[in-house]
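Figure 3 (text version): C-alpha cells given as input.
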C-alpha cells in the first residue's frame, strides 16, 4: 500500500460516542413518547456521531457516479453490450437518466466520474480520471495491477474530497459499468464467505443458462486468481473493477471528513466491504439506501451489519436507491433540530 493511501486509511477516527449519547438524551425531551419515531431516532443518533455535531446536517447532498468497463464481459456474462456504458454516461450528462430525475428531486449536485471506461468521452461535464480502458479479464489474469488499483482508490477519494470542498453534507454513491455485477459477486463470495451461486443474480436480465455460466466463470476465476480473503486489497486487485475501487476511496475520504455516506446497491456495497476491511471505523459512517434485487447484496449488507432504509424492489444502480433514501436522513435531522421540547411547547411530560 502506498503512503498516500495508507495515510488515508489510518486517518479515519471512530464516530463520537459522546455525541450519540447526548442525542439519545435530547430526543427524549422532544414532544413524543420515547422511541416513538423508531429508526429515525437511530439514524439521527448515528449522524450526530458521524458529524460530531449537536445539530447534524445532511443538506446539501452530493451524488458521485463512478463509471468503468470490465474485461470479464468477454466471457458473455452480461445481457447488454459494453458500449452501453458510454451511452449511459452521455445520458447522465444530458440529464435523462433515472438518477438525474431523483437528483433534481432532492436538489443534489451530481458528478459523473470516468475511472475506466473502454471509450474516450470528450465532454467538459465529465470528471475524467481514467486509469485504463477497462479492467483485464480476470478469468485470464488479475483485473488490475497494484498501482492501478491504488490509483483508482485515490481517484475516488479525490472526487469525494472535491465535492466535500464544495459544501456537500452527505455523499451518495452510484456506479455505471456493464458487467459489474460479476466482479461484485466475486468480491461478495470471497469476502463474506457466501457461495458464488448465492451471490449471483440475473443482473440486467440474463437467462437461467447465462446465470449458470456466470457462476461457472466466477468460480473458475476465483480458483485461478487465488485471492487472499484476509486482504481486501488483494481481492480487489484480482477480481474487482475500477469503479468499485473508486467507490472504496470515496467512502474513505468521506469518513475522514466526517461526512455520512449513503450506499446504493450491490456494486457500491462491495466497495464498502473493501473500505471497512481496511479500517473498521468506516462501518459507522455508512447507510444502506435500499435492498437490491441482486441476491449478493443481502450477504454484503449482513456482513457489514447494516439494515437497508428502503426495500422497493430496485436493481438499476446509478445511485437511484441512495437518492430515494436521502429524504429519510433529511427527515431524521429535521426531527431532531426542529421539533419542540416538552418544556418549550408547554406539553406535560409523563
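Below: residues designed for each position.
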Amino acid at each position: 500500500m502506498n503512503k498516500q493511501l495508507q495515510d488515508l486509511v489510518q486517518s479515519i477516527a471512530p464516530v463520537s460516542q459522546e455525541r450519540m449519547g447526548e442525542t439519545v438524551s435530547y430526543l427524549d425531551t422532544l414532544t413524543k413518547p420515547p422511541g416513538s419515531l423508531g429508526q429515525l431516532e437511530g439514524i439521527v443518533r448515528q449522524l450526530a456521531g458521524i458529524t460530531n455535531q449537536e445539530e447534524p446536517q445532511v443538506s446539501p447532498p452530493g451524488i458521485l457516479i463512478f463509471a468503468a468497463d470490465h474485461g470479464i464481459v468477454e466471457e458473455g456474462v452480461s445481457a447488454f453490450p459494453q458500449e452501453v456504458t458510454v451511452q449511459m454516461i452521455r445520458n447522465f450528462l444530458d440529464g435523462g437518466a433515472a438518477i438525474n430525475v431523483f437528483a433534481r428531486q432532492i436538489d443534489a449536485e451530481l458528478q459523473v466520474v470516468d475511472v475506466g471506461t473502454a471509450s474516450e468521452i470528450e465532454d467538459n461535464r465529465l470528471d475524467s480520471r481514467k486509469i485504463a480502458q477497462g479492467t483485464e479479464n480476470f478469468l485470464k489474469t488479475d483485473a488490475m495491477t497494484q498501482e492501478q488499483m491504488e490509483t483508482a482508490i485515490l481517484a475516488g477519494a479525490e472526487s469525494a474530497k472535491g465535492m466535500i470542498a464544495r459544501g456537500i453534507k452527505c455523499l451518495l454513491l452510484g456506479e455505471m459499468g456493464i458487467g459489474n455485477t460479476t466482479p461484485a459477486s466475486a468480491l461478495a463470495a470471497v469476502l463474506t464467505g457466501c457461495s458464488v451461486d448465492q451471490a449471483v443474480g440475473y443482473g440486467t436480465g440474463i437467462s437461467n443458462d447465462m446465470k449458470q455460466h456466470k457462476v461457472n466463470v466466477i468460480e473458475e476465476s476465483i480458483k485461478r486468481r487465488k485471492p487472499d480473503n484476509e486482504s481486501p486489497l488483494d481481492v480487489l486487485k484480482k477480481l474487482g473493477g475500477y469503479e468499485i475501487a473508486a467507490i472504496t476511496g470515496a467512502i474513505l475520504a468521506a469518513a475522514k471528513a466526517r461526512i455520512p455516506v449513503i450506499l446504493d446497491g450491490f456494486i457500491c456495497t462491495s466497495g464498502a466491504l473493501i473500505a471497512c476491511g481496511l479500517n473498521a471505523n468506516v462501518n459507522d459512517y455508512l447507510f444502506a439506501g435500499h435492498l437490491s434485487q441482486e441476491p449478493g447484496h443481502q450477504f454484503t449488507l449482513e456482513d457489514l451489519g447494516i439494515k437497508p432504509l428502503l426495500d422497493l424492489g430496485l436493481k438499476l444502480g446509478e445511485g437511484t436507491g441512495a437518492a430515494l433514501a436521502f429524504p429519510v436522513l433529511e427527515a431524521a435531522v429535521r426531527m431532531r433540530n426542529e421539533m419542540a421540547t416538552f418544556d418549550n411547547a408547554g406539553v406535560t411530560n409523563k
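The chain is about 50% helix and 10% strand.
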